[in-house]
Amino acid sequence: MRSIYAIMLLTVLVTLLAACGGKGDGTTLEEESTVPVIAITSPAFLSGEPIPAKYAKGRETLSPPLEWGQPPEGTQSLALICDDPDAPGGTWVHWVIYNLPPTTRSLPEGVSRDVDLADGSHNGKNSWGNIGYDGPSPPGGTHRYYFKLYAIDTMLDLDSGATKKEVLEAIEGHLLARGELMGTYKK
Asked: Residue 46: which residues within 8 A CB-CB, separation 6 or more?
């Protein structure tokens, strides 16, 4: 009887993880559920808790500070995507940053919005069509914002300013580990 409950719980968890993020069309990277997890946190907010207003879309548009653990051996680059699956028209992308060096363990508050960054990484295009981070700006209600970190076994061969879709397509088949931090925001 316990094994039936364990199987049911595992099925529910896998279903919930698959629904939490992906390519913007409700899908995820095929290998997301089978790779190791990297812990990702922020000193600005706890997982599941509200994101402070200073990181919302507005005057400053500061990205929040993020920290994560050691990626697996063989990691050649990291990518981070922040999106809102609760947006009325479908998943709304707030940030795409890719080709972060594999030795990177954090991003500071207020990462530059330049397309090409000093460490060799690149900011991509968000759903507003802007380069870099644009914070939460829900039209109403409380929305969830997922910061998803990907450890990749290659450098992504993409032009600067790539979209979430382009980054996820390039990651397919190269994912070594992933992490996820969710914060909420309400105007």
From this structure: none
Q: Let me know: does 63 contact 111? Beta carbons within 8 Å.
A: yes
Total number of domains in the chain: 1
Q: Per-residue pLDDT tens for 80-121?
A: 999 999 999 999 999 999 999 999 999 999 999 999 999 999
Sole residue written with tokens 């954090």? 106
* Cα separation, 40 vs 108, whole angstroms: 13
Compute the radius of gyration of the chain from its Cα atoms.
16
DSSP 103: T
Whole-structure pTM value? 0.84
CATH code of 38's domain: 3.90.280.10
CA–CA separation, 183 vs 143, rounded Å? 8
Q: pLDDT tens digits, residue range 131-157?
A: 999 999 999 999 999 999 999 999 999
